[in-house]
Write a structure and sequence with these properties.
This protein is an alpha/beta fold. The chain has two domains: 140 residues, 3-Layer(aba) Sandwich (Rossmann fold); 168 residues, Alpha-Beta Complex (L-2-Hydroxyisocaproate Dehydrogenase, Chain A, domain 2), CATH 3.90.110. Helices cover 43% and strands 19% of the residues. It contains eleven helices and 14 strands. The strands form four sheets. It has a six-stranded parallel β-sheet with strand order 3-2-1-4-5-6. Strands 7-10-11 form a three-stranded antiparallel β-sheet. The chain has a three-stranded antiparallel β-sheet with strand order 12-13-14. Helix 6 runs antiparallel to helix 8. Bound molecules: 3-acetylpyridine adenine dinucleotide. Its EC number is 1.1.1.37.
Length: 320
């Protein structure tokens, strides 16, 4: 059977890391696309040359031509610009919206059956725009944010509790921005919910509040340290987890920016919600019940995403 084809649109920091991870995990043949001449070709060759030592097979192609992504099973989109210190994700909207137009058209023309995972920021608005520009079915276009935000939350919790990250599960919903909603009630250590762990004296409400805030600021913390760009190892790993769920029909339950058509009382918009990813893409959005306080936070986050979508429509009238 032919190997799956994985097209990475954008061969920058995340794109290169995605290619290396896909190679090491032998997920399929990799095509790296970028507008920068030489960058995707150089990274593809460099990764292919790590194959003999690492022990993987596969083909690795770098290209500046959309025709080379033909028949891709998965497209992961990181094309655009990342933020620098002092910038918010929303500052990237105008420039990255134009990029989503060309990427959406390229995917529609050459890989219309792909499962498309968008990573470009501001995420929830860009995945919506990418879906509009590509015209692909809503269940085949999804945004990566919740897996990363939840991984950050899990990491910070594991440090606090001094337990393995593997035993910490966590849930982050809403838009991928300062208003994201880490759901404390649904986050656990080996099934023990965080509120119970406070009662058991494992942590205090104040410490937990600080961890929630650090999670919300997780992207900015890394931008502040790197100074020249944003996080790329954990974002790439998170998107690969989603791609693998699709390619292997794992039916993983993962928080993603998915299209809501009535779920959570939302109609026609993308926002971070729990989903099931399997061979049909987003197979289900899990419409969990929120408490009053959680609903207030979620609504605030949804409003922020709605504002960005309206701004996109203002910039590109074809989206209105
Ligand atoms: P970077 O290393 O700059 O790579 C972006 C690549 O996109 C560059 O190689 C550019 O040449 C390329 N590019 C620009 N315009 C086009 C175009 N029209 N067509 C094809 N390629 C193009 O950035 P990065 O990899 O660090 O980040 C990529 C994106 O991911 C940024 O928008 C970040 O803000 C975003 N990001 C999102 C998350 C989430 O959790 C959602 C996390 C981290 C970064």
């Amino acid at each position: 059977m032919a190997r799956p084809r994985i097209a990475l649109i954008g061969a920058g920091q995340i794109g290169g890391t995605l290619a290396h991870l896909a190679a090491i995990k032998e997920l399929g043949d990799v095509i790296l696309f970028d507008i920068a001449e030489g960058t995707p070709q150089g990274k593809a060759l460099d990764i292919a040359e790590s194959g003999p030592s690492e022990g993987f097979d596969g083909s690795f192609k770098g290209t500046n031509d959309y025709a080379d992504i033909a028949g891709a099973d998965v497209c992961i989109v990181t094309a655009g610009v990342p933020r620098k210190p002092g910038m918010s994700r929303d500052d990237l909207l105008g420039i990255n919206l134009k990029v989503m137009k060309s990427v959406g058209e390229g995917i529609a023309a050459h890989a219309p059956n792909a499962f498309v995972i968008c990573i470009t920021n501001p995420l929830d608005a860009m995945v919506w725009a990418l879906r509009e520009f590509s015209g692909l079915p809503h269940n085949k276009v999804v945004g990566m944010a919740g897996v990363l935000d939840s991984a950050r939350f899990r990491h910070f919790l594991s440090l606090e509790f001094k337990v393995s990250m593997r035993d910490v599960t966590a849930f982050v919903l809403g838009g991928h921005g300062d208003t994201m909603v880490p759901l404390v009630r649904y986050s656990t250590v080996a099934g023990i919910p965080l509120p119970d762990l406070i009662e058991m004296g494992w942590t205090s409400q104040d410490k937990l509040d600080a961890i929630v805030q650090r999670t919300r600021d997780g992207g900015a913390e890394i931008v502040g340290l790197l100074k020249t760009g944003s996080a790329f190892y954990a974002p790439a790993t998170s998107a690969i987890e989603m791609a693998e769920a699709y390619l292997k029909d794992q039916r993983r339950l993962l928080p993603c920016a998915a299209y809501c058509d009535g779920e959570f009382g939302l109609k026609g918009m993308y926002v971070g919600v729990p989903t099931i990813i399997g061979a049909n893409g987003i197979e289900k959005v899990i419409d969990i019940k929120l408490t009053k306080d959680e609903q207030v936070m979620f609504d605030k986050s949804v409003d922020a995403v709605r504002g960005l979508v309206e701004a996109c429509k203002g910039i590109d009238p074809s989206l209105a």
